[in-house]
Design a protein that fits this description.
The chain is of the alpha/beta class. 45% of the residues lie in helices and 11% in strands.
Length: 252
């Protein structure tokens, strides 16, 4: 953990359309150190992976103190700026949230617009929440506002794109530094979104989707692997254990 103001400025400066910040998301101190050792200048967390490693579902039900303790362990393990995926904020007030974020040593966060009672939060409600977060602290941080239209399958693809653009514009106007239409995979629609929204755009990287240079050419400013590496690790463990053969009869 270093100077948080300088780290926040560095993190924000790396959101450049066409030269995206690439984030292989970590979930503990060991993966954070590995990501940094591999040459990535920023460490991001995956809420799904962090929650799973702590024994919780990825549905905003993880206790806030557990979530921020995990972030603090990651931030303490690396000198790189840390941006944390923190679901929908765990029910904290804006001031409680930003105090916990900075206290954990993070200088950025993802926040989703899913309403865990069902559907999406109203645009005005989410924009007001994002604005309150920015107003709640004098300490800078990079706010990445996730847009969940596509993963919730809210409607027809074109309607979802129009709503996502509307949400992206509203969230940027409310103070978000980047917007994240998670689940938007089609290159044509990614290009349309980045051209229309008017600010830095984060997309999710899929191993079977467009490569990093292709996404950069679409105007993307940030690329996240999300829970992708966690899934790879889980498969690797399963495959390694399979080499042991039929071991069930030897286990008490």
């Amino acid at each position: 953990m270093g100077d948080l103001t300088a780290q926040a400025a560095e993190l924000k400066s790396r959101h450049v359309p066409g030269r995206p910040l690439v984030l292989p998301n970590a979930w503990d101190a060991a993966t954070a150190r590995l990501v940094h050792k591999l040459g990535f200048p920023v460490v991001a967390t995956s809420s799904y992976a962090v929650a799973a490693a702590a024994g919780y579902p990825d549905d905003n039900s993880m206790p806030a103190e557990v979530a921020f303790a995990r972030v603090a362990a990651i931030a303490a393990a690396t000198p790189a700026p840390v941006t944390a995926d923190l679901e929908a904020g765990y029910g904290l007030s804006a001031k409680e949230f930003t105090t916990a974020l900075h206290g954990a040593g993070a200088v950025g966060c993802n926040l989703e617009d899913s309403d865990h009672r069902g559907g999406l939060k109203a645009i005005e409600e989410q924009a007001a929440w994002l604005s309150a977060l920015k107003a709640s602290t004098g300490q800078p941080f990079v706010l990445n506002a996730r847009i969940d239209c596509f993963i919730l399958d809210a409607g027809a693809p074109q309607r979802d794109l129009a709503e996502a653009i509307e949400r992206g514009r509203a969230y940027l106007a409310a103070g978000a530094d980047c917007v994240y239409p998670i689940g938007l995979r089609d290159p044509v629609r990614i290009k349309e979104f980045t051209a229309a929204v008017g600010g830095p755009v984060n997309v999710h990287y899929h191993f079977d989707g467009p490569a990093v240079p292709e996404l950069a050419a679409l105007g993307v400013a940030r690329i996240s692997l999300g829970a992708g590496l966690f899934a790879v690790a889980q498969r690797a463990i399963k495959d390694a254990v399979a080499t042991l053969g039929d071991y069930s009869s030897t286990v008490d």
